């Protein structure tokens, strides 16, 4: 920490300004495992108690309601696991269900329930709030943990492809507000993340496929070799070959972690958001479709749209957008939805409003990541509406030809 003084002039007088500067290191483990709530698997207990291993830590567990429907014995398994590691884990209350999907983020009552539980059960800043579920559940519970007591330890156990390879390993928590996605939130690094691959086996096919979109996204902006690996292994990924799926999730998660740690802006104080490639239209499409299009599906469409735009803008070589779209389709994505045809102001496509909403979310000038090559993202600060409309027409024509 340092405090420096500088001098400024104010109405002819000289004022002294002190600049306080300090840095706080952030670190948290991201583990990959199977059967994390098996009584013979200590990884979660070790990570929760890693700084104070000689005492039990009070923990609240919130579990995705959809996951509990698929695995009705999960509550009992968590309770048995806590008893097996009673030297490090103290279950502060019964396991609490929370609605899965966007409903977890759409109603303030779910956020309030987390904060109330922290208060009621005496969870302090050395206790843990553990969220088990998809990305929306992790977001809502994480925000509750980040705001109660100005931040209690939050442990994530992501259970979907999308949360294991992307959102679950990051530092953001958020809920929606008046229909605006992720309007209320914080940057609060988790205490630990444990990805349990066994949970993926209980996902619906549609949801399991959707998470692959984030792998394609990060490969396109950061890792050409990874993109080529996805191309070569598309059939294995859609067949949910265990080794292929796990490799995709690990590589995608590591690339996201590398960007957060090494991109120079982990708490997004600037305007660049390379990990939001394809997202400006995706977020708007989710809303326009009434969430009939899920996040991964919307991201796939957004990737194809911005790839075509990159070609039209002279950034990406012609033909590369076809390569990208072909891969996405081979993975099972449809690349057009009728909601994209909805009209907004001036009879322009309503999805164009997503650009202004994206700029507002950034808090500065518009910055959109496009492509200059497969594996190389490039930031632009203006999107030509006419080129966006042409890219939308391209998607519509491709869909009509299927």
UniProtKB/TrEMBL annotation:
Protein keywords: Amino-acid biosynthesis, Aromatic amino acid biosynthesis, Lyase, NAD
Cofactor(s) listed in the protein's UniProt record: NAD(+)
Domain of life: Bacteria
Domain 3-dehydroquinate synthase C-terminal: 211-335
3-dehydroquinate synthase N-terminal domain sequence ranges: 97-207
UniProt-listed Enzyme Commission number(s): 4.2.3.4
A molecular function (GO) term: 3-dehydroquinate synthase activity
Lyase found in the keyword field: yes
Keyword Lyase: yes
InterPro entries: Dehydroquinate_synthase (IPR050071), DHQS/DOIS_N (IPR030960), DHQS_C (IPR056179)
NCBIfam families for this protein: PRK06203.1 (NF004852)
Name of protein: 3-dehydroquinate synthase
């Amino acid at each position: 920490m340092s405090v420096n003084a500088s001098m400024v002039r104010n109405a002819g007088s000289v004022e002294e300004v002190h600049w306080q500067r300090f840095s706080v290191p952030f670190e948290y483990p991201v583990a990959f495992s199977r059967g994390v709530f098996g009584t013979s698997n200590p990884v979660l207990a070790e990570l929760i108690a890693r700084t104070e291993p000689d005492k039990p830590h009070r923990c609240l567990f919130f579990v995705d309601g959809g996951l509990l429907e698929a695995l009705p014995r999960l509550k009992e398994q968590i309770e048995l696991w806590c008893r097996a590691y009673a030297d490090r884990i103290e279950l502060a209350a019964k396991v609490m269900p929370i609605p899965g999907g966007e409903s977890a983020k759409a109603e303030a009552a779910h956020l309030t329930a987390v904060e109330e539980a922290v208060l009621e059960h005496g969870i302090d800043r050395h206790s843990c709030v553990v969220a088990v579920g998809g990305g929306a559940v992790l977001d809502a519970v994480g925000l509750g943990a980040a705001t109660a007591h100005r931040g209690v330890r939050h442990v994530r156990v992501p259970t979907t492809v999308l949360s294991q390879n992307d959102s679950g390993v990051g530092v953001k928590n958020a809920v929606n507000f008046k229909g605006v996605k992720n309007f209320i939130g914080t940057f609060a690094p988790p205490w630990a993340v444990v990805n349990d691959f066994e949970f993926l086996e209980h996902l619906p096919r549609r949801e399991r496929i959707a998470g692959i979109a984030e792998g394609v996204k990060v490969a396109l902006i950061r890792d050409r070799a990874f993109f080529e690996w996805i191309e070569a292994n598309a059939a294995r990924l859609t067949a949910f070959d265990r080794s292929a799926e796990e490799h995709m999730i690990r590589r995608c998660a590591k690339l996201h972690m590398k960007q957060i740690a090494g991109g120079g802006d982990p708490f997004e104080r600037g305007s660049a958001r390379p990990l939001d490639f394809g997202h400006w239209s995706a977020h708007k499409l989710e809303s326009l479709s009434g969430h009939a299009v899920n996040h991964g599906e919307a991201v796939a469409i957004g990737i194809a749209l911005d790839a075509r735009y990159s070609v039209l803008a002279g950034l990406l070589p012609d033909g590369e957008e076809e390569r990208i779209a072909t891969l996405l389709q081979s993975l099972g994505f449809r690349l057009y939805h009728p909601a994209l045809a909805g009209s907004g102001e001036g009879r322009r496509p309503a999805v164009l409003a997503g650009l202004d909403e994206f700029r507002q979310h950034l808090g500065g000038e518009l910055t959109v990541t496009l492509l200059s090559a497969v594996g190389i993202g490039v930031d632009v600060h203006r999107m030509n509406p006419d080129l966006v409309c042409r890219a939308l027409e391209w998607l519509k024509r491709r869909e009509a030809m299927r």
